[in-house]
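Before the break, one more example. Copy the sequence into your notebook; we will annotate it together after we see the structure.
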Amino acid sequence: MARAVGPYRMATFLKDHNWDCEIIDYFEYWKPGYLEDYIKRKITSDTKWIGISYTWMVEKSEKVIALVSFIKSIRSDLLVIIGGQSPYYKDLGADYYIFGYAEYATLKVLDYEFGDGTLPFYTKLFNGRYIDALHNYPSHDLKDYSIRFQDNDFISDKDILTIAFSRGCKFKCDFCTFPFIGIKEDTSTSEEILYRELMENYQKWGVKNYYITDETLNDRTEKLIKIKNVIQRLDFQPNLTGFVRADLLKSHPEHMELLAESRVWGQYYGLETFCRDAGKSIGKGLHPDIVKENVLNIRDYFKKNLGLYRGSISMIAGLPYESLDSMRESQKWLEENWDDQFAFWYPLQILNAPNGVGALSAMGKDFSKYGYREMQDSEKVNRIKESALYDHEVTWENDHTNIFEVRKLIQEEFTFKFKLGGFVLWPLLPYIPFNKLMQVEYDDSKLNIEAAQPLTDRISRYINLKYKN
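Here is what the structure looks like once it is written out:
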């Protein structure tokens, strides 16, 4: 698991604007009581506000609510700002809720609350103020997304850090709830900024390994050329992993060469489906046979030309026009042709937004258009709602299947083969046949922390890999 890029980027941005910040990372993994003790010691009369990154915490909203309540119990006047890319379905107890990339919006709030700035544009949400940074204070095109880590961030050469080359996605998949889609302009950073960040992290900490947070790494040839130019200037060989559109490597074969020269040998592909009609319905019209042949060619190219490769395929169960048997056929192909790599399935999630805030997918805005309807089986609906990640997940069904059936299919039939978890295997492990990866043991001993020392690394999972044989 990589460090949360948002808080570190925000801290760097605010420090550039004369706001001193301290990051508490991986707070959900601290021992009970340690986080509270640490926060008590850190909150002083000089503390003005606390920010919480919410994008990956939606399914743990109760922990966020408890944390905000604890903070307010120490000092009720302390300003709490919660921000991220996820919709706000619950009252989290915050003073401000910011939606979207939040650098400029947060600065606007701080200037108003603690300086001589004007009140930012907001709407009322629960007992706080909701700021739509996506439209009112856009920060998706900063051009500089670099992070400057501090000594007390406890960076080591075993870390896999996050890095951004650009923000936003130029594509608009119908199932996608990410707010920054359809971005046509080039938001990529400069070669010099990227070179400076990579070299600084290497010279200070010895870091060589990175997750790339770009929504689509290979969306523009010009960006890939910039990355290649920077990588070839470095005094070391980095290892990079990121989200790659496999179909673009088919239409732009030169991208494979650029990615190989840039040592982007960990690649994640959102293929979603091998069903022709399902793919066409969500804007992915490449024929399934071509898709399959393409990913195998990509794998072979990197093994041959770079000698390193780790590929991960994600699939969505429950897309329009696709039956359970069609999904089983797709899984069979993956097991027979992709067993030295990694693949996993997500059940289709369709979200609504009763509060009118946040981003909806095209499906979420009108799921009936895609052949979906609300399930009427109350027993199954209740079982699904109990396990749903989001409070307002639609309990959908169509003429082929329903969310209950696809969840059961994934859990009972698909997980036995690729069972170790997507964000464990796909990033930057050296090429190892899958049957050996299945023998990996994990040493979680480093997940324990001492009081007042942040848990800096769930990456201990990687550091302590060892084989039974």
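The chain has 18 helices and 15 strands. Residues 416-469 have pLDDT under 50 and may be disordered. Try to locate both features in your own notes.
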